[in-house]
Batch of 4 targets.
Target 1
Amino acid sequence: MTYIPEMLPSRRASAERPRRVVFVAYEGVSLLDLAGPLEAFIVANRFGPGAGESPLYECSVASVRGGAIRTADGLPLGTESVLALKGKVIDTLIVPGACAVDDVTRDKALIRWVRNNAGACRRLCSVCIGSFLLAAAQLLDRRRATTHWMHCSLLSDRHPAVSVGAETHVAQWRMWLWIVSISLRCFGRRSVLIV
Protein backbone atom coordinates (compact mmCIF):
# COMPACT_ATOMS: atom_id res chain seq x y z
CA MET A 1 0.00 0.00 0.00
CA THR A 2 1.34 3.41 -0.91
CA TYR A 3 1.54 5.88 1.97
CA ILE A 4 0.53 9.37 0.83
CA PRO A 5 0.07 11.52 3.95
CA GLU A 6 -1.28 14.59 2.15
CA MET A 7 -4.20 12.52 0.86
CA LEU A 8 -5.29 11.28 4.29
CA PRO A 9 -7.87 13.11 6.40
CA SER A 10 -6.65 15.13 9.33
CA ARG A 11 -7.61 14.12 12.83
CA ARG A 12 -9.90 16.60 14.49
CA ALA A 13 -9.00 17.42 18.07
CA SER A 14 -12.72 17.52 18.87
CA ALA A 15 -13.41 14.03 17.56
CA GLU A 16 -14.66 11.98 20.51
CA ARG A 17 -15.47 8.83 18.60
CA PRO A 18 -14.66 7.33 15.22
CA ARG A 19 -17.05 8.12 12.41
CA ARG A 20 -19.27 5.13 11.65
CA VAL A 21 -19.22 4.22 7.95
CA VAL A 22 -21.77 1.61 6.88
CA PHE A 23 -21.66 -0.14 3.52
CA VAL A 24 -25.00 -1.74 2.64
CA ALA A 25 -24.70 -5.01 0.77
CA TYR A 26 -27.10 -7.19 -1.18
CA GLU A 27 -26.98 -10.31 -3.33
CA GLY A 28 -24.89 -9.48 -6.41
CA VAL A 29 -22.97 -6.50 -4.96
CA SER A 30 -19.73 -5.72 -6.81
CA LEU A 31 -16.76 -6.74 -4.73
CA LEU A 32 -14.66 -3.94 -6.28
CA ASP A 33 -17.28 -1.27 -5.54
CA LEU A 34 -17.44 -2.42 -1.92
CA ALA A 35 -13.81 -3.34 -1.21
CA GLY A 36 -12.19 -0.33 -2.92
CA PRO A 37 -13.88 2.36 -0.81
CA LEU A 38 -13.69 0.17 2.31
CA GLU A 39 -9.93 -0.13 1.82
CA ALA A 40 -9.62 3.67 1.61
CA PHE A 41 -11.10 3.99 5.11
CA ILE A 42 -8.90 1.18 6.45
CA VAL A 43 -5.79 2.90 5.04
CA ALA A 44 -6.85 6.17 6.68
CA ASN A 45 -7.13 4.32 10.01
CA ARG A 46 -3.76 2.60 9.67
CA PHE A 47 -1.65 5.42 8.28
CA GLY A 48 -3.54 8.61 9.07
CA PRO A 49 -2.90 11.05 11.87
CA GLY A 50 -2.95 9.35 15.23
CA ALA A 51 -2.39 5.87 13.75
CA GLY A 52 -2.25 3.37 16.58
CA GLU A 53 -4.59 5.47 18.71
CA SER A 54 -8.33 5.43 18.26
CA PRO A 55 -9.36 4.94 14.60
CA LEU A 56 -10.81 7.75 12.50
CA TYR A 57 -13.46 5.43 11.04
CA GLU A 58 -15.44 2.45 12.26
CA CYS A 59 -16.54 0.50 9.18
CA SER A 60 -19.11 -2.24 8.81
CA VAL A 61 -20.92 -4.08 6.04
CA ALA A 62 -24.63 -4.62 6.62
CA SER A 63 -27.47 -6.36 4.82
CA VAL A 64 -31.14 -6.69 5.67
CA ARG A 65 -30.93 -10.18 7.17
CA GLY A 66 -27.23 -10.25 8.08
CA GLY A 67 -25.07 -13.30 7.49
CA ALA A 68 -23.51 -14.37 4.22
CA ILE A 69 -24.51 -12.86 0.89
CA ARG A 70 -23.07 -13.68 -2.54
CA THR A 71 -21.16 -10.99 -4.39
CA ALA A 72 -21.37 -10.60 -8.17
CA ASP A 73 -18.17 -12.66 -8.32
CA GLY A 74 -19.83 -15.53 -6.43
CA LEU A 75 -17.82 -15.02 -3.25
CA PRO A 76 -19.67 -15.24 0.06
CA LEU A 77 -19.42 -12.08 2.14
CA GLY A 78 -20.23 -11.90 5.84
CA THR A 79 -22.51 -9.03 6.87
CA GLU A 80 -24.22 -7.82 10.01
CA SER A 81 -27.95 -7.21 10.05
CA VAL A 82 -29.15 -3.64 9.61
CA LEU A 83 -31.13 -4.31 12.81
CA ALA A 84 -27.80 -4.31 14.69
CA LEU A 85 -27.43 -0.65 13.67
CA LYS A 86 -30.62 0.45 15.44
CA GLY A 87 -29.85 3.34 17.78
CA LYS A 88 -26.33 3.81 16.42
CA VAL A 89 -25.29 7.04 14.71
CA ILE A 90 -24.32 6.43 11.07
CA ASP A 91 -22.07 9.18 9.81
CA THR A 92 -21.76 7.89 6.24
CA LEU A 93 -23.94 5.33 4.48
CA ILE A 94 -22.45 3.95 1.26
CA VAL A 95 -24.31 1.94 -1.39
CA PRO A 96 -21.85 0.02 -3.59
CA GLY A 97 -22.77 -0.86 -7.15
CA ALA A 98 -23.16 -4.21 -8.89
CA CYS A 99 -22.59 -5.68 -12.33
CA ALA A 100 -26.33 -5.58 -13.11
CA VAL A 101 -28.68 -2.70 -12.29
CA ASP A 102 -31.45 -5.12 -11.29
CA ASP A 103 -29.21 -6.62 -8.60
CA VAL A 104 -28.96 -3.17 -6.98
CA THR A 105 -32.72 -2.69 -6.76
CA ARG A 106 -33.93 -6.27 -6.16
CA ASP A 107 -33.90 -6.12 -2.32
CA LYS A 108 -37.03 -4.05 -1.59
CA ALA A 109 -36.52 -4.38 2.18
CA LEU A 110 -33.05 -2.81 1.83
CA ILE A 111 -34.47 0.04 -0.26
CA ARG A 112 -37.07 0.69 2.48
CA TRP A 113 -34.41 0.56 5.20
CA VAL A 114 -32.19 3.04 3.33
CA ARG A 115 -35.16 5.36 2.72
CA ASN A 116 -36.22 5.22 6.39
CA ASN A 117 -32.72 5.74 7.79
CA ALA A 118 -31.21 8.20 5.31
CA GLY A 119 -32.38 11.29 7.17
CA ALA A 120 -30.35 10.35 10.25
CA CYS A 121 -27.10 9.90 8.28
CA ARG A 122 -24.65 12.75 7.92
CA ARG A 123 -23.78 11.65 4.38
CA LEU A 124 -25.20 9.29 1.78
CA CYS A 125 -22.97 7.96 -0.96
CA SER A 126 -23.22 5.55 -3.82
CA VAL A 127 -20.52 3.92 -5.87
CA CYS A 128 -21.14 3.44 -9.57
CA ILE A 129 -24.67 2.09 -10.15
CA GLY A 130 -25.44 2.03 -6.44
CA SER A 131 -27.18 5.30 -7.31
CA PHE A 132 -30.08 3.21 -8.64
CA LEU A 133 -30.85 2.08 -5.08
CA LEU A 134 -30.84 5.69 -3.83
CA ALA A 135 -33.11 6.64 -6.73
CA ALA A 136 -35.45 3.69 -6.01
CA ALA A 137 -35.61 4.93 -2.41
CA GLN A 138 -36.68 8.34 -3.84
CA LEU A 139 -33.69 10.01 -2.18
CA LEU A 140 -32.47 11.53 -5.45
CA ASP A 141 -35.77 13.08 -6.53
CA ARG A 142 -35.30 16.72 -7.58
CA ARG A 143 -31.54 16.41 -7.06
CA ARG A 144 -28.58 16.30 -9.40
CA ALA A 145 -26.94 12.86 -9.40
CA THR A 146 -24.77 10.68 -11.54
CA THR A 147 -23.85 7.06 -12.08
CA HIS A 148 -21.59 4.98 -14.29
CA TRP A 149 -21.49 6.73 -17.67
CA MET A 150 -22.90 3.66 -19.43
CA HIS A 151 -26.06 3.77 -17.29
CA CYS A 152 -26.82 7.50 -17.16
CA SER A 153 -29.63 7.33 -19.71
CA LEU A 154 -31.16 4.31 -17.95
CA LEU A 155 -31.11 6.13 -14.59
CA SER A 156 -32.77 9.11 -16.23
CA ASP A 157 -35.40 6.92 -17.97
CA ARG A 158 -36.28 4.90 -14.84
CA HIS A 159 -36.23 7.90 -12.50
CA PRO A 160 -37.34 11.04 -14.37
CA ALA A 161 -37.47 13.05 -11.11
CA VAL A 162 -33.66 12.76 -10.89
CA SER A 163 -31.49 15.27 -12.76
CA VAL A 164 -28.81 12.96 -14.17
CA GLY A 165 -25.44 14.46 -15.13
CA ALA A 166 -23.34 12.14 -17.28
CA GLU A 167 -20.38 14.53 -17.23
CA THR A 168 -20.24 14.73 -13.45
CA HIS A 169 -17.76 12.55 -11.59
CA VAL A 170 -18.78 13.67 -8.11
CA ALA A 171 -21.98 15.49 -7.25
CA GLN A 172 -21.98 17.05 -3.79
CA TRP A 173 -24.15 19.35 -1.74
CA ARG A 174 -24.87 19.60 1.97
CA MET A 175 -25.09 16.06 3.35
CA TRP A 176 -25.11 14.41 -0.07
CA LEU A 177 -22.10 12.94 -1.79
CA TRP A 178 -22.11 10.45 -4.64
CA ILE A 179 -18.92 8.70 -5.54
CA VAL A 180 -19.41 7.73 -9.14
CA SER A 181 -16.98 5.05 -10.00
CA ILE A 182 -14.12 3.24 -8.41
CA SER A 183 -12.66 3.24 -11.92
CA LEU A 184 -11.53 6.82 -11.28
CA ARG A 185 -8.96 5.34 -8.93
CA CYS A 186 -8.09 2.51 -11.29
CA PHE A 187 -7.38 4.83 -14.20
CA GLY A 188 -4.91 6.96 -12.32
CA ARG A 189 -7.03 9.93 -11.32
CA ARG A 190 -6.05 11.28 -7.94
CA SER A 191 -8.90 10.93 -5.55
CA VAL A 192 -9.06 12.13 -1.98
CA LEU A 193 -10.99 10.65 0.90
CA ILE A 194 -13.25 13.53 1.87
CA VAL A 195 -15.77 11.90 4.19
Note: The longest strand covers residues 57-63.
Target 2
Amino acid sequence: METDTSTTSTTPPSLPPTSVIPSTSKKRRRELSNAHRAEIRKHFFSNAIKPSQREIIQWFEEKNYHTLTQSQVSKVLSKEYSFLDEDKWQEKDKNKPAQYPAGS
Protein backbone atom coordinates (compact mmCIF):
# COMPACT_ATOMS: atom_id res chain seq x y z
CA MET A 1 0.00 0.00 0.00
CA GLU A 2 1.38 3.33 -1.00
CA THR A 3 0.85 6.37 1.18
CA ASP A 4 0.66 9.84 -0.16
CA THR A 5 3.50 11.84 1.38
CA SER A 6 2.45 15.15 -0.12
CA THR A 7 0.51 17.29 2.26
CA THR A 8 -1.98 19.88 1.29
CA SER A 9 -0.86 22.54 3.67
CA THR A 10 -2.02 26.03 3.07
CA THR A 11 0.58 28.68 3.44
CA PRO A 12 -0.52 32.13 4.43
CA PRO A 13 -0.20 34.72 1.70
CA SER A 14 3.00 36.64 1.94
CA LEU A 15 2.73 40.17 3.27
CA PRO A 16 3.98 43.05 1.19
CA PRO A 17 7.27 44.62 2.24
CA THR A 18 6.94 47.25 4.91
CA SER A 19 7.89 50.00 2.49
CA VAL A 20 4.66 49.36 0.57
CA ILE A 21 2.38 49.70 3.59
CA PRO A 22 1.46 53.35 4.07
CA SER A 23 2.59 54.67 7.38
CA THR A 24 0.14 56.43 9.60
CA SER A 25 1.69 59.30 11.43
CA LYS A 26 0.51 59.85 14.95
CA LYS A 27 -0.62 63.31 15.90
CA ARG A 28 1.09 64.79 18.90
CA ARG A 29 -1.12 65.60 21.84
CA ARG A 30 -1.58 69.28 22.48
CA GLU A 31 -2.86 70.21 25.86
CA LEU A 32 -5.36 73.02 25.97
CA SER A 33 -4.33 76.00 28.02
CA ASN A 34 -6.71 77.43 30.60
CA ALA A 35 -6.96 80.52 28.38
CA HIS A 36 -8.28 78.37 25.52
CA ARG A 37 -10.64 76.53 27.85
CA ALA A 38 -11.97 79.84 29.18
CA GLU A 39 -12.42 81.07 25.61
CA ILE A 40 -14.47 77.97 24.72
CA ARG A 41 -16.64 78.34 27.83
CA LYS A 42 -17.19 82.04 27.16
CA HIS A 43 -18.17 81.34 23.54
CA PHE A 44 -20.63 78.66 24.61
CA PHE A 45 -22.24 80.37 27.59
CA SER A 46 -22.40 83.90 26.12
CA ASN A 47 -24.59 82.88 23.17
CA ALA A 48 -28.35 82.96 23.63
CA ILE A 49 -28.63 80.00 21.26
CA LYS A 50 -26.10 77.44 22.52
CA PRO A 51 -23.83 76.14 19.74
CA SER A 52 -23.48 72.39 19.36
CA GLN A 53 -20.22 70.74 20.30
CA ARG A 54 -19.52 70.17 16.62
CA GLU A 55 -20.00 73.91 15.96
CA ILE A 56 -17.64 74.72 18.83
CA ILE A 57 -15.01 72.41 17.32
CA GLN A 58 -15.33 74.15 13.94
CA TRP A 59 -15.26 77.62 15.49
CA PHE A 60 -12.19 76.80 17.60
CA GLU A 61 -10.34 75.27 14.64
CA GLU A 62 -11.00 78.34 12.46
CA LYS A 63 -9.83 80.65 15.21
CA ASN A 64 -6.87 78.76 16.66
CA TYR A 65 -5.85 76.26 13.93
CA HIS A 66 -6.16 73.40 16.42
CA THR A 67 -8.71 70.59 16.15
CA LEU A 68 -10.53 69.51 19.27
CA THR A 69 -12.30 66.25 19.92
CA GLN A 70 -15.87 65.98 21.12
CA SER A 71 -14.69 64.62 24.46
CA GLN A 72 -12.39 67.63 24.97
CA VAL A 73 -15.27 70.03 24.37
CA SER A 74 -17.55 68.06 26.68
CA LYS A 75 -14.97 68.10 29.46
CA VAL A 76 -14.23 71.82 29.06
CA LEU A 77 -17.95 72.61 29.31
CA SER A 78 -18.38 70.45 32.41
CA LYS A 79 -18.47 71.74 35.99
CA GLU A 80 -14.83 70.72 36.40
CA TYR A 81 -13.76 73.89 34.59
CA SER A 82 -16.40 76.24 35.97
CA PHE A 83 -13.65 78.11 37.85
CA LEU A 84 -12.60 79.54 34.47
CA ASP A 85 -15.82 81.56 34.34
CA GLU A 86 -14.35 83.98 36.88
CA ASP A 87 -11.35 86.20 36.23
CA LYS A 88 -9.52 85.15 39.40
CA TRP A 89 -7.93 82.10 37.76
CA GLN A 90 -5.66 84.40 35.71
CA GLU A 91 -4.08 85.83 38.86
CA LYS A 92 -2.38 82.57 39.82
CA ASP A 93 1.38 82.49 39.20
CA LYS A 94 1.25 79.47 36.92
CA ASN A 95 -1.09 81.34 34.55
CA LYS A 96 1.11 84.41 34.19
CA PRO A 97 3.35 84.71 31.12
CA ALA A 98 7.07 84.21 31.65
CA GLN A 99 9.20 87.34 31.97
CA TYR A 100 12.58 86.95 30.40
CA PRO A 101 15.55 89.19 31.16
CA ALA A 102 15.60 92.22 28.90
CA GLY A 103 18.62 92.78 26.64
CA SER A 104 21.21 90.05 26.70
Note: Residues 34-84 form a domain with the Arc Repressor Mutant, subunit A fold (CATH 1.10.10.60).
Target 3
Amino acid sequence: MAENDSLKFKYVFPGDYCPAYVNTVRGGITARGELEIHFLHDRPPLPDTSEMTFIEGHPIQREFVADNLTGLRHVKTGVIMDYDSARRLHKWLTEKIGIFDSMMEKARAQQTDRDSAKKEEAKKE
Protein backbone atom coordinates (compact mmCIF):
# COMPACT_ATOMS: atom_id res chain seq x y z
CA MET A 1 0.00 0.00 0.00
CA ALA A 2 1.40 3.42 -0.93
CA GLU A 3 2.05 5.95 1.84
CA ASN A 4 -0.89 8.21 0.85
CA ASP A 5 -3.40 5.37 0.47
CA SER A 6 -6.06 5.04 3.12
CA LEU A 7 -8.74 2.63 4.20
CA LYS A 8 -12.28 3.78 4.88
CA PHE A 9 -14.46 1.59 7.09
CA LYS A 10 -18.24 1.54 7.50
CA TYR A 11 -19.58 0.35 10.83
CA VAL A 12 -22.20 -2.40 10.53
CA PHE A 13 -24.41 -2.96 13.56
CA PRO A 14 -26.70 -5.97 14.06
CA GLY A 15 -30.39 -5.15 14.31
CA ASP A 16 -30.45 -5.99 18.02
CA TYR A 17 -27.33 -3.94 18.88
CA CYS A 18 -27.74 -2.35 22.30
CA PRO A 19 -24.81 -1.12 24.44
CA ALA A 20 -24.93 -2.63 27.91
CA TYR A 21 -23.98 -1.07 31.23
CA VAL A 22 -21.27 -3.08 33.01
CA ASN A 23 -19.50 -2.50 36.31
CA THR A 24 -17.48 -5.67 36.75
CA VAL A 25 -15.11 -7.72 34.62
CA ARG A 26 -13.82 -11.28 34.94
CA GLY A 27 -11.62 -13.38 32.72
CA GLY A 28 -8.13 -14.62 32.09
CA ILE A 29 -5.86 -16.35 29.62
CA THR A 30 -7.35 -19.24 27.65
CA ALA A 31 -5.64 -22.57 26.94
CA ARG A 32 -4.87 -21.17 23.46
CA GLY A 33 -3.05 -18.17 24.93
CA GLU A 34 -5.77 -15.64 24.19
CA LEU A 35 -7.34 -13.12 26.52
CA GLU A 36 -10.92 -13.88 27.53
CA ILE A 37 -12.93 -11.07 29.13
CA HIS A 38 -16.47 -11.29 30.48
CA PHE A 39 -18.32 -8.05 31.20
CA LEU A 40 -20.83 -8.20 34.03
CA HIS A 41 -23.33 -6.07 35.87
CA ASP A 42 -23.52 -6.58 39.64
CA ARG A 43 -26.68 -5.49 41.40
CA PRO A 44 -28.87 -6.36 44.36
CA PRO A 45 -31.70 -8.77 43.55
CA LEU A 46 -35.18 -7.52 42.84
CA PRO A 47 -37.91 -9.18 44.88
CA ASP A 48 -39.48 -12.33 43.47
CA THR A 49 -42.84 -11.29 44.88
CA SER A 50 -44.33 -8.53 46.93
CA GLU A 51 -47.41 -8.33 49.08
CA MET A 52 -49.40 -5.25 49.97
CA THR A 53 -51.66 -5.25 52.98
CA PHE A 54 -53.80 -2.41 54.25
CA ILE A 55 -53.99 -1.43 57.87
CA GLU A 56 -56.61 1.20 58.57
CA GLY A 57 -56.56 2.12 54.89
CA HIS A 58 -52.77 2.61 54.73
CA PRO A 59 -50.79 0.32 52.43
CA ILE A 60 -47.88 -1.65 53.85
CA GLN A 61 -45.75 -3.48 51.31
CA ARG A 62 -43.50 -6.44 51.98
CA GLU A 63 -41.09 -7.82 49.40
CA PHE A 64 -39.71 -11.34 49.22
CA VAL A 65 -36.39 -12.37 47.69
CA ALA A 66 -35.83 -16.09 47.21
CA ASP A 67 -32.92 -17.87 48.86
CA ASN A 68 -31.74 -14.77 50.75
CA LEU A 69 -29.56 -13.67 47.83
CA THR A 70 -27.38 -10.67 48.52
CA GLY A 71 -26.43 -9.93 44.92
CA LEU A 72 -26.80 -10.90 41.31
CA ARG A 73 -24.08 -10.96 38.69
CA HIS A 74 -25.47 -10.63 35.15
CA VAL A 75 -23.05 -11.66 32.41
CA LYS A 76 -23.69 -9.11 29.65
CA THR A 77 -21.16 -10.19 27.04
CA GLY A 78 -17.76 -11.69 26.61
CA VAL A 79 -14.88 -11.24 24.19
CA ILE A 80 -11.85 -13.32 23.31
CA MET A 81 -8.86 -11.66 21.66
CA ASP A 82 -5.31 -12.41 20.70
CA TYR A 83 -2.27 -10.78 22.29
CA ASP A 84 -1.89 -8.02 19.67
CA SER A 85 -5.55 -7.05 19.98
CA ALA A 86 -5.24 -7.04 23.78
CA ARG A 87 -2.22 -4.69 23.52
CA ARG A 88 -4.20 -2.35 21.23
CA LEU A 89 -7.13 -2.43 23.67
CA HIS A 90 -4.74 -1.63 26.51
CA LYS A 91 -3.31 1.34 24.58
CA TRP A 92 -6.79 2.60 23.67
CA LEU A 93 -8.04 2.26 27.28
CA THR A 94 -4.94 4.02 28.63
CA GLU A 95 -5.54 6.95 26.26
CA LYS A 96 -9.26 7.20 27.10
CA ILE A 97 -8.65 6.87 30.84
CA GLY A 98 -6.05 9.66 30.60
CA ILE A 99 -8.65 11.92 28.98
CA PHE A 100 -11.21 10.89 31.60
CA ASP A 101 -8.71 11.59 34.42
CA SER A 102 -8.09 15.09 33.02
CA MET A 103 -11.83 15.76 32.84
CA MET A 104 -12.32 14.54 36.42
CA GLU A 105 -9.42 16.68 37.72
CA LYS A 106 -10.90 19.73 36.01
CA ALA A 107 -14.34 19.00 37.46
CA ARG A 108 -12.88 18.55 40.96
CA ALA A 109 -10.96 21.84 40.65
CA GLN A 110 -14.12 23.62 39.53
CA GLN A 111 -16.05 22.15 42.47
CA THR A 112 -13.29 23.21 44.87
CA ASP A 113 -13.48 26.75 43.43
CA ARG A 114 -17.28 26.80 43.86
CA ASP A 115 -16.99 25.50 47.43
CA SER A 116 -14.37 28.14 48.26
CA ALA A 117 -16.52 30.89 46.77
CA LYS A 118 -19.52 29.72 48.86
CA LYS A 119 -17.40 29.74 52.02
CA GLU A 120 -16.19 33.26 51.26
CA GLU A 121 -19.77 34.42 50.69
CA ALA A 122 -20.88 32.80 53.95
CA LYS A 123 -18.09 34.64 55.84
CA LYS A 124 -19.29 37.98 54.42
CA GLU A 125 -22.84 37.42 55.71
Note: The chain has two domains: 18-81, 83-125.
Target 4
Amino acid sequence: MNNKLLQLFIRQSGRCFYCDGDTWLFGAGESKDAIRKRLGVPLAGNGSKKALRYRRATIEHLHRKVDGGSDKMENLVMACALCNSRRGELPVNIHLAATQDNREGEK
Protein backbone atom coordinates (compact mmCIF):
# COMPACT_ATOMS: atom_id res chain seq x y z
CA MET A 1 0.00 0.00 0.00
CA ASN A 2 1.20 3.50 -0.83
CA ASN A 3 2.28 5.34 2.33
CA LYS A 4 1.14 8.75 1.01
CA LEU A 5 -2.27 7.35 0.15
CA LEU A 6 -2.59 5.93 3.66
CA GLN A 7 -1.66 9.32 5.16
CA LEU A 8 -4.23 11.06 2.95
CA PHE A 9 -6.86 8.45 3.85
CA ILE A 10 -6.28 9.11 7.54
CA ARG A 11 -6.11 12.91 7.08
CA GLN A 12 -9.46 12.93 5.25
CA SER A 13 -11.13 10.27 7.43
CA GLY A 14 -11.61 8.07 4.37
CA ARG A 15 -13.76 10.69 2.61
CA CYS A 16 -13.33 11.77 -1.02
CA PHE A 17 -12.08 15.35 -1.39
CA TYR A 18 -14.64 16.10 -4.11
CA CYS A 19 -17.86 14.20 -3.37
CA ASP A 20 -17.29 13.55 0.37
CA GLY A 21 -18.22 9.91 -0.20
CA ASP A 22 -16.74 6.99 1.71
CA THR A 23 -13.78 5.28 0.06
CA TRP A 24 -11.72 2.17 0.68
CA LEU A 25 -8.02 1.31 0.54
CA PHE A 26 -6.74 -1.64 -1.44
CA GLY A 27 -4.57 -3.85 0.75
CA ALA A 28 -5.69 -2.38 4.08
CA GLY A 29 -6.83 -5.76 5.40
CA GLU A 30 -10.58 -5.10 5.20
CA SER A 31 -12.45 -7.89 3.40
CA LYS A 32 -14.32 -7.00 0.22
CA ASP A 33 -17.57 -8.14 1.83
CA ALA A 34 -16.95 -5.81 4.80
CA ILE A 35 -16.11 -2.95 2.42
CA ARG A 36 -19.29 -3.55 0.41
CA LYS A 37 -21.38 -3.58 3.57
CA ARG A 38 -19.78 -0.37 4.90
CA LEU A 39 -20.23 1.43 1.57
CA GLY A 40 -23.74 0.11 0.94
CA VAL A 41 -22.70 -1.80 -2.18
CA PRO A 42 -24.66 -5.01 -2.87
CA LEU A 43 -22.68 -8.19 -2.25
CA ALA A 44 -23.48 -9.46 -5.72
CA GLY A 45 -25.44 -8.55 -8.78
CA ASN A 46 -25.48 -6.01 -11.51
CA GLY A 47 -22.90 -3.26 -11.06
CA SER A 48 -21.51 -4.46 -7.73
CA LYS A 49 -17.89 -4.74 -8.91
CA LYS A 50 -18.03 -1.43 -10.76
CA ALA A 51 -19.53 0.39 -7.75
CA LEU A 52 -16.75 -0.96 -5.55
CA ARG A 53 -14.07 0.02 -8.09
CA TYR A 54 -15.45 3.59 -8.29
CA ARG A 55 -15.21 4.06 -4.49
CA ARG A 56 -11.54 2.99 -4.30
CA ALA A 57 -9.25 5.64 -2.78
CA THR A 58 -6.76 7.27 -5.16
CA ILE A 59 -4.16 10.02 -4.90
CA GLU A 60 -5.18 13.24 -6.61
CA HIS A 61 -2.87 16.18 -7.42
CA LEU A 62 -4.57 19.52 -6.77
CA HIS A 63 -2.22 21.16 -9.24
CA ARG A 64 -1.40 18.65 -11.96
CA LYS A 65 2.21 17.63 -12.39
CA VAL A 66 2.11 18.66 -16.07
CA ASP A 67 1.18 22.16 -14.86
CA GLY A 68 4.09 22.30 -12.42
CA GLY A 69 2.42 20.63 -9.42
CA SER A 70 4.48 18.52 -7.06
CA ASP A 71 4.17 15.23 -5.18
CA LYS A 72 4.40 17.07 -1.85
CA MET A 73 1.62 16.36 0.64
CA GLU A 74 0.29 19.94 0.45
CA ASN A 75 -0.51 19.34 -3.24
CA LEU A 76 -2.13 15.93 -2.70
CA VAL A 77 -5.61 14.89 -1.64
CA MET A 78 -7.44 11.60 -1.69
CA ALA A 79 -10.32 11.19 -4.13
CA CYS A 80 -12.49 8.25 -5.06
CA ALA A 81 -11.56 6.71 -8.41
CA LEU A 82 -14.75 8.04 -10.03
CA CYS A 83 -14.15 11.69 -9.05
CA ASN A 84 -10.46 11.42 -9.94
CA SER A 85 -11.26 10.16 -13.44
CA ARG A 86 -14.10 12.66 -13.96
CA ARG A 87 -11.83 15.61 -13.19
CA GLY A 88 -9.67 14.90 -16.21
CA GLU A 89 -7.85 18.12 -17.16
CA LEU A 90 -10.22 20.50 -15.35
CA PRO A 91 -8.71 22.92 -12.84
CA VAL A 92 -9.43 21.75 -9.30
CA ASN A 93 -11.69 24.72 -8.44
CA ILE A 94 -13.98 24.11 -11.43
CA HIS A 95 -14.26 20.37 -10.77
CA LEU A 96 -14.85 20.95 -7.06
CA ALA A 97 -17.61 23.49 -7.76
CA ALA A 98 -19.31 21.14 -10.24
CA THR A 99 -19.13 18.26 -7.76
CA GLN A 100 -20.58 20.40 -4.97
CA ASP A 101 -23.37 21.58 -7.29
CA ASN A 102 -24.21 17.93 -7.98
CA ARG A 103 -24.29 17.19 -4.24
CA GLU A 104 -26.65 20.13 -3.64
CA GLY A 105 -28.98 18.81 -6.34
CA GLU A 106 -29.20 15.44 -4.59
CA LYS A 107 -30.51 16.95 -1.33
Note: Strands lie at 57-61, 76-80.
